[in-house]
Amino acid sequence: MRRPPAQTAALVLTLAVPLVLAATSAPATADTLPTTGFEDSGGADWTTLEQEHDFLAEVAALSDRVELEQVATTAEGRPIHLVSLTDGDGRSPGAIAKNASALVLCLQHGNEPAGREGCLQQIRDLALSTDPAVKRLLSLTTVMFVPTVNPDGRAANTRVNSEGFDINRDHLALETVEGRLVAELTRDYDPEILHDAHEYGGNWTLYNRDRIHLWPRNLNVDDNVYGLARSLTLDYVDPAVVEAGYTTGEYGIYYDPTTGEPVRQVAGDQDERILRNATGLRHTAGLLVESLVNDFEGVGVVANNNRRVDSQVVGIQGTLDMLSEQRARLIAQTRAAEARATSEGASGTGVIYLDGADNDTPDPARVVEPPCSYLLNQEQYDGLADELALHDIAVSASDAGWVVSMAQPSKTVIPLLLDARANHSVVEATPVPCR
Ligand SMILES: [Zn+2]
Question: What beta strand segments (E) does 64-206 contain?
């Protein structure tokens, strides 16, 4: 059962807004407003999985903007939920895919709990707020959350899932239930934005910003999608977080403590198995966000936990601001990227980057000419049919075998998955040259 609400800062803000309830709901007062286990404890304890389920059910019962559904089951039998919020018409995948939407993933790594807490609070606030800006946002767009992508990892407080997989290295091969779910949601709902919430362990002198963020670095990502993801980071999420009093930086970059200049890169490369890159390759503006776990300022566990969570709440707000303000541009540019990939794939123009990043010039030998298609034999196709479908890659039968044409939006993913020269390909398909 829920404990009596404690007066955390985030809760007080919410309580200041009067509630409008669904006609069928019993009247709710500030005392009955749903609160998370984290809020109930004042920031001392993370919300348990049981508390999360009760909280989401309670929020869904109080708001006709919310749809709560179980979309997968983990290896250990735990449910994974999708929460969709909209005031618009229809929550079918087709209706959502047609309009602008954002997908917020809150806990790929089970031992990074602050993003999940931020998501739960945002879900409640979007569901129950009477703020005209929220009503407008949800009348024009859909905001989706997977509050706990990795419940087995949360239960065990591990980075990996119960089978030992790092889910955030599985967005190409799709070997995990969790990775497959993210691909499926991306395919079916076609979100314009994907916000991926994490936490990081810092370094006292060189790596100590409250928040670090990163866009896709993979060079195969369409230029305009890359631009949208950078804009999401630099024009929306960074400023929102700074305005709330937090420091920000680029994920994976150590900064000189005196000059503030970058001195070394320790993470954040072009790896196509990582979601922020995989998302970009699917023509969605993706963003990795990380809150600093360490209490470098010595404020104590509870205050530090609240800092971590509040910075996540504020960061999500930055993403929602871009969705609201840029929805037409987001739709136009991500769809143009799909069309561009299809036409380049058909004509065999452009190149495939097997290495290199936006801040790392590739070895020319690793920049190759695209084929017009790849050929899979029957055994290869049988082993990959499900994964190809999850990546939204169309395949056709021919006398020579199964043909994967490059003339389709997923042209940006196909070589990385099927070409033996790629760093993480899962099969050795036969490239068929254009001429
Ligand atoms: Zn993480």
Answer: 66-73, 79-85, 100-105, 141-146, 193-200
Chain centroid to Cα 121, Å, comes to 17
Query: 99: helix, coil or strand?
Result: coil
Q: Which of 202, 239, 207 is nearest to 314 (CA)?
A: 239
Which string of b and e fits 104-135 if b means at least 16 CB within 10 Å?
Answer: bbbbbbbebbbbbbbbbbbbbbbbbbeeeebe
CA of 313 to the centre of ligand 1 (A): 17
Phi first, then psi, for residue 196 (nearest 5°) are -115, 105
Query: Quick check: pTM over 0.90?
Result: yes
What is the whole-number distance in angstroms between the Cα of residue 407 and the centre of ligand 1? 34
pLDDT along the chain (435 residues), means of 10: 36 37 46 91 98 98 96 98 88 82 98 98 96 94 97 98 98 98 97 98 94 98 98 98 97 93 94 98 98 97 98 98 97 98 96 97 97 98 98 97 98 98 98 91
Taking the centre of ligand 1 as the mean of its atom positions, its distance from the CA of residue 53, in whole angstroms, is 22
Secondary structure element (H or E) that encloses residue 62, with its range: helix 49-62
Distance from chain centroid for Cα 144? 10
Phi, psi of 367 (to 5 degrees): -115, 110
For residue 109, the CA-to-ligand 1 centroid distance in Å is 5
Give the span between the Cα atoms of 65 and 124, in whole angstroms: 10
107 CA to middle of ligand 1, Å? 8
Q: Which pairs from 86-95 meet CB under 8 Å and 24+ separation? A: 86/138, 86/139, 86/141, 86/142, 86/143, 87/135, 87/138, 87/139, 88/138, 88/139, 88/140, 88/141, 88/142, 91/67, 91/142, 93/188, 93/189
The 8-class DSSP code of residue 296 comes to: T
DSSP state of 77: S
Q: Cβ–Cβ contacts within 10 Å for residue 424, how many?
A: 12
Taking the centre of ligand 1 as the mean of its atom positions, its distance from the CA of residue 111, in whole angstroms, is 8
Question: From edge to edge, which strands make up the β-sheet containing 373-376?
Answer: 396-398, 401-405, 373-376, 430-432
